[in-house]
Write a structure and sequence with these properties.
Layout lengths: L4 E7 L4 E4 L5 E11 L5 E10 H7 L7 E12 L6 E13 L3
Parallel strand pairs: 4-6
Antiparallel strand pairs: 1-3, 1-5, 2-3, 3-4, 5-6
Amino acid sequence: MVNKVILEGVLARAPYICQTSNGNKKALFTLEITTYEDGATTKNIELECYSSAAEKIENLQGGETIYAEGKLYRYKSTKNDCYMLAVSANNVEVKKAP
């Protein structure tokens, strides 16, 4: 079974940067993805990345266009006691404006 996600979207806000217990940098961020299935709709996708991928985006602000590749995973939300989907990105690139 293949588990690969490729996303390109706009950074919703500055990423939250922290460190793991073993000292690796971790970035948590949200991409706004616009779809055009039934008119234009924006969906928010939660992502996380580590180490060098986190360093690439740690100083960004909202509004930057981001390309991310990674894997989909499921976790239990502590806020509303349900399961959520997110992406663990292993490759993150900042797209430069033309």
